[in-house]
Design brief:
single chain; about 550 residues; alpha/beta; Rossmann fold; 5-stranded parallel β-sheet; two-stranded antiparallel ribbon
Length: about 550
Amino acid sequence: MMTSPLEEGARACALERYLSGDAQPPKRGDFPFAPAALLLVARYGYGVPSLRNAAAFGEDVRVVGMYRAMRLAFDAYADAVKRDRREAEQTLAVQVTAAFDTVLRWLRESGFVSDFSFDYTDEQQTTDEHLRLLAGILALCLWDCGHPPAREYIRGLMPELLGGHDGWRYVKATVGMAEDVHAALDWRPGHGALGSLHHALLRGGRLIEDAYVGAPAPEPAWASEAREKAAAEKAAKTALETGPSLLVLSSVEHLPGLAKAGESRPGGHTGSTPRAEWAPFAGRRWPLAPVPDLAAARAVLVGEFPYATGIIDSVLRDLAGWGWVYIRPILIEGPPGSGKTRLARRIGEVLGLGVQVYGCGGASDASILSTSRQWSTGRASTMLQLLKRLQAASALLVLDEIDKVGEGKNNGSILDGILPLLTPDAARHFDTYLECPVDLSGMSYIATANDITGLRRMHGALLDRFRCYRMPAPRREDLPVLVRGVLAEICAERGVDEAWVSPLTGEELSLVEQHWRGASVRGVRRLVEAVLAGREQLATRM
């Protein structure tokens, strides 16, 4: 039976693949016997087939002998072509013709009728099937050399091919062969192949297209791209008109330059001016994130943070009945590694907000708000830049480790600067870089801190604007959930699909539980990373 990898490779060279266009047929100027050489290599590699080993491997001696003769003929051609290419090709054509005639005679003697299926169990049928495979490839080569019997053999196969379940794949070849395309072509040794099948496929394709009266012309690629882009822009515009939106920056006309508000490609002199930078964002309403299915959002968040149900419910409860997502300022207090920042980020992501984590630790100025254009390092506020990058009017800013801000106030204080942003005054926030009011009322804020004792003493007004929650410590029964969440986070950071990373086995999970000291999600991450590193090390040894 034909089950070996070499036999599978030989099937890939079958004539049907050339006739259907799956395999590239010979073109004019190609080596005419390339398909036969490919079939020979696919079955036996570059060695000479041995008749002595034929019986041992259950191969028919005739098949092995034919391939052996072909190998010797190709080797002789490779030596002779250096001396006289014309004579070498003529000799090879005679040898291939003799092989083709011999294979046809063997097929006639066996009474073999092919149904173009490889599902045979009988040894004789398997041999006959391979002889048909060999005859088809030899016929293709000789048809390209102008050998009429080879072309007639291929034409005789077409009715059965067309009657198959995928017969439509051979229609072009059949139509092209119906024309006597080879009559006007005269192959001579040393002049390369005629490209007969290639010519038939092209001609058949043209005849079919010409017969299809009224067929629409294929759309150019640029037209398809333009149509898809226009459809996407229309859908975005419709969503903006029907959904909640906000005008964040009304105009940049007061700034020096020539760019106009709302222009995505400003004309004239643009340079690197604030007007040119912010013109595409100004004068346009940008979408606010609509409130998603709160029950589904709660299921996701509680599934990842079962020990923080109180915080999650408090955030989601405020959104009931709202048309767009706005999280009232909250502050999450908890020990290091308890998962505060991760919870804050996931709340924003699940609710459909773009999220920016701003590290407050060590910050000793108010540059988060904006920097005046009188300085060379001037820039707009972090919040406005986030909205511009997202092309949205709502987002979440996570003020991480707000209790660790610097004590110096020579350049302002971040804690004092964000006070007005936590109230309705955010709708009229004055950006010193753009020198105009901007509407940041769509921004949401979640702060994290390890200890708010100092903040309560030094910045009581700030804490009055936050709802403060204590981050519960993860429980030991929450460990499987923590491990799944940490594993998903690691996969996302490494750019690996979770489907390619197996969940931790029971033994691995027990190992993590044994070494986890409790309370710290960061500790769980270190243990999971150690398990994954161990997997990789073992995999390289196998």
